[in-house]
Design brief:
7 helices, mainly alpha
Length: 232
């Protein structure tokens, strides 16, 4: 996982070594944006874990009700996240589409969760003529696969690109990028925030995409020096 991240990061920094500013709009501090992204991943992970636990038990009707409940929570959280992201902006040319891209992805997920709600509601309502219940039932695992694919996309390449916004592009004496744009105190606060939000899941071997992204960021923060540390 670390190798994939650093390969992607090297390609990103090489391609975007010269910054171009495409907007006069006030830029959101990169630390604020990355912190918000971590909050968003943690909020979705909390809903996912609760939904998974609820789905372990109960009859079919209860599971359908749980699916509606969880999907509605996902939608509410994603809409809130979209609202927050719409108030943010990154100026650099290689980053200016990151936030709009996240908004588009979140909107797509909202649509999939609405389909889960619609299908579950149809089953709860009981048999009605003209409805192909078999087709709807077959659609559920397809929706799940699509959502998983979106989460994988968020993990790689989008998350590494987001994390790279914290890198200082100034090269060190070896012509490597080795420093963050944040101080040691800010890095400590961000790491503590990650630990608090994800807890023991960061140490699990089989991590989902959201937890994996948080673990990658934590590793990334530890591996690089901070803005107030000596330059080689």
């Amino acid at each position: 996982m670390r190798i994939v991240f650093w390969i992607f990061l090297a390609l990103t920094l090489t391609a975007g070594s010269v910054l171009a500013f495409g907007s006069d709009e006030a830029e959101t501090p990169h630390l604020v944006f990355v912190t918000e992204y971590m909050r968003e991943l943690a909020a979705i992970e909390h809903i996912r874990a609760s939904a998974e636990k609820d789905a372990e038990h109960g009859k079919v009707q209860e599971k359908l009700l749980s699916a509606i409940h969880a999907s509605t929570l996902f939608q509410l959280e994603l809409r809130s996240q979209i609202g927050t992201l719409k108030g943010m902006h990154l100026n650099a040319a290689e980053y200016e589409q990151v936030i709009p891209g996240l908004i588009d992805i979140y909107a797509i997920k909202i649509g999939y969760y609405q389909r889960v709600i619609d299908i579950s509601t149809n089953f709860l309502a009981g048999p009605k003529p003209g409805i192909d219940y078999g087709k709807m039932l077959a659609e559920m695992p397809q929706i799940r696969a699509e959502l998983e694919d979106i989460d994988h996309t968020l993990f790689n390449p989008i998350s590494p690109l987001i994390f790279s916004t914290l890198i200082d592009r100034k090269p060190d004496s070896k012509n490597h990028v080795s420093h963050l744009i944040i101080t040691r105190a800010e890095r400590t606060t961000l790491i503590e925030d990650i630990n608090s939000r994800f807890g023991a899941k960061l140490d699990q071997k089989d991590q989902n995409s959201g937890v994996s992204a948080a673990q990658v960021l934590k590793t990334f923060l530890i591996d690089l020096k901070c803005s107030d540390e000596p330059w080689d």
